[in-house]
Design goal:
mainly beta, globular, 7 helices, 63% strand, 21-stranded mixed beta sheet
Length: 617
């Protein structure tokens, strides 16, 4: 009558990553060539991720009619990271002082940053759910109350940037990047300038940053479902309905401290480079993670009276990214399952009422004051659904479905926050006016089962999606009216030239077909007994229309996805080999006039191959 299940898991994962990237790119009107016009970065990452998890579940058969349960989970995650970065800044100087060619740029350099970040981020998740199921004759009751808490603590960290300034004043030679291999640009040009770049004594401290950021996410939920089995005429019908309440609060509290003492990188560098570096240009190990960690004892929360403390910058960045969001969802549904001779029909409707209260900060840097910005939003969604299954024969089944769906904006997309870059000319802004995604979904499918362990199926689907959420970048004058900037003082937004925010796209469509084949090869030949083959393919075509009329594929939707696998499972052996392919997809937009050439960012296609072997004794 009483059951206990206990589980513990542990993982220690080490990762080294070699990376290079560019902030932005543009097209040259005269030649049509694409070129880097923002920055170019090289990054080396050393990561150590540890996970420790516990699960304790309890089940109690209180009586013949009632089962109760308690579900608990605790998970701890640590991300111990060191990141070195070498950043070539202000590459837009090429537009006035340099040259642009088919395979690269050449220009007098302005600034280069050498940066190191050392941090240990800790995340914790706790969940508790208490519920049960009771059956009384034709009635069935399901019920549950739950609590969940997640915390992300990013307080054990520092970030230090040393800057080589005004390079062209003392080293006027030209350097640039050969991008014939665009995945690995190659630094070329004046050897004197390049040597100066790799001399740590040319770099002086720009800022020593300490961060004390905590994110908390708390959710309380309760649900109650009731089902009743009946006969309507000669048709068995199961009626079902339920209610659910979810109350969730997300708090972001960020404290950033900037110190700007007079320090030279030569004192925080070792004259070495990262070995086995896989990009084209050398990657220094400086600033040294160990040497810069010693600065933590000199610059922290207890030393904000130090003359090197940047009070304005610290106050601004500590306040402007903070937010508090409370989201309440009350949902109810009713449905019926009708069992006809060969037809099973399930029809119902779900209604969800959402109330959101958001609080952010409006910060005036010069006066070191912060005002609370409050925004509320509420909406109701009615979501019908109908599903049909028809058994033409014992081995041939048809399916059809329609259902409405809603996906709410993520808290990070709609929070009333503003984040500025170092130069305060670019801003990332949460959009408090975001509407949720809504979608009408249609599915048709046909399944044929040649044998008990084989199936051939075909499906076609269509989705009409309204108010899909895209991240988008605009010139400040072109920010659409659906993004509320009115609550942000001119003192903050006045110097901003470019805004990255989140917008609703009026309408999107996805049309696709699916094929699936699973075959027990032993059914084809006794010699293949134990072998199993499976394969599936999804082809889709998608389109979203942006506010300026430009059409793009639906965000992160691949046109082609397939999987194929061959397995052997007989006796003590279980052998598998599989391949998975995902086509390219749109990852990020740059919003420009639909008649101009645009440089949206795509994630390339990929294929993964996996193999496993198990032996049981």
């Amino acid at each position: 009558k009483f059951g206990v299940a206990l589980s513990v898991n542990y993982q220690d994962l080490r990762i080294e990553a070699h990376n290079n990237e560019t902030g932005e790119a543009a097209f040259d009107d005269a030649t049509g060539f694409g070129y880097m016009n923002d920055d170019y970065e090289q990054r080396w990452y050393g990561l150590n991720r540890k996970r420790l998890g516990f699960v304790a579940n309890f089940d109690w058969r209180m009586s013949e009619s009632t089962d109760l349960y308690l579900r608990t989970l605790l998970n701890n995650y640590e991300d111990d990271e060191v990141r070195n970065k070498l950043e070539f800044r202000d590459l837009d100087d090429v537009e006035k002082k340099g040259t642009i060619s088919q395979f690269g740029i050449s220009l007098p350099l302005n600034e280069v940053d050498a940066e190191v970040r050392v941090r240990k981020e800790t995340r914790q998740i706790q969940t508790v759910a208490l519920g049960g199921k009771s059956v009384f004759n034709a009635w069935t009751f399901d019920y549950e109350v739950s609590y969940a808490y997640a915390e992300e603590d990013d307080s054990d960290n520092h970030d230090v940037t040393f800057r080589f300034k005004d390079i062209q004043d003392n080293f006027p030679g030209l350097v640039g990047f050969n991008t014939k291999n665009p995945a690995k640009p190659n630094l070329v040009g004046d050897s004197t300038v390049i040597s100066a770049i790799y001399n740590p004594n040319n770099y002086d401290l720009d800022a020593f940053e300490r961060g004390y950021t905590v994110n908390e996410d708390t959710e309380y939920a309760a649900r109650f479902d009731v089902a009743y089995d009946s006969i309507l005429g000669n048709t068995p019908v199961t009626w079902k309905g339920g209610l659910k309440l979810r109350d969730r609060e997300k708090i972001r509290d960020e404290d950033i401290l900037y110190f700007k003492p007079d320090l030279n990188l030569g004192n925080y560098a070792t004259n070495s480079f990262h070995g086995n570096w896989r990009m084209n240009n050398p990657m220094p190990t400086w600033p040294s993670p160990g040497l810069t960690t010693s600065l933590r004892s000199l610059y922290n929360k207890s030393t904000t009276s130090d003359p090197d403390f940047d009070a304005k910058g610290s106050f601004f960045d500590s306040q402007i990214a903070d937010y508090n969001i409370n989201e309440k969802v009350l949902a109810g549904y009713g449905m019926g399952t009708f069992e006809f001779d060969k037809l099973t029909l399930i029809a119902g409707v779900r209604v969800e009422k959402t109330d959101v209260d958001m609080e952010g900060r409006i910060v005036t840097e010069d006066e070191l004051t912060a005002a609370v910005r409050k925004v509320s939003n509420d909406y109701t969604n009615v979501l019908p659904s109908i599903n049909a299954k028809y058994e033409f024969t014992d081995r041939l089944i048809g399916r059809a479905a329609y259902y409405g769906a809603v996906v709410r904006p993520s808290f990070g997309d709609m929070a009333p926050f503003v984040e500025l870059n170092d130069d305060q000319d670019e801003a990332v802004v949460g959009n408090t006016n975001l509407d949720p995604y809504t979608a009408d979904n249609f599915d048709l499918g046909l399944e044929f089962y040649p044998t008990d362990l084989s199936v051939i199926s075909f499906g076609i689907f269509y989705k009409n999606i309204k108010d899909a959420i895209f991240e988008n970048t605009f010139d400040i004058a072109d920010v659409p009216g659906s993004v509320d900037l009115s609550g942000i003082p001119t003192a903050i937004i006045g110097g901003v030239e470019e805004v990255t925010t989140f917008i609703n796209v009026d309408e999107s469509e996805i049309l696709g077909v699916e094929f699936n084949y699973v075959q027990d090869l032993g059914d084809l030949s006794e010699m293949l007994d134990g072998f199993l083959f499976s394969g599936n393919l999804t082809l889709s075509d998608s389109e979203s229309t942006l506010p300026n009329g430009r059409t793009v594929p639906f965000l992160r939707q691949s046109d082609t996805i397939w999987n194929i696998a061959l397995g052997y499972d007989k006796g003590p052996w279980d052998l598998r080999i599989s391949a998975n392919y995902r086509g390219e997809y749109l990852d990020e937009l740059l919003d420009t006039d639909p008649d101009e050439r645009v440089l949206d960012r795509y994630t390339d296609n990929r294929m993964l191959v996996e193999a496993s072997a198990k032996y049981k004794w």
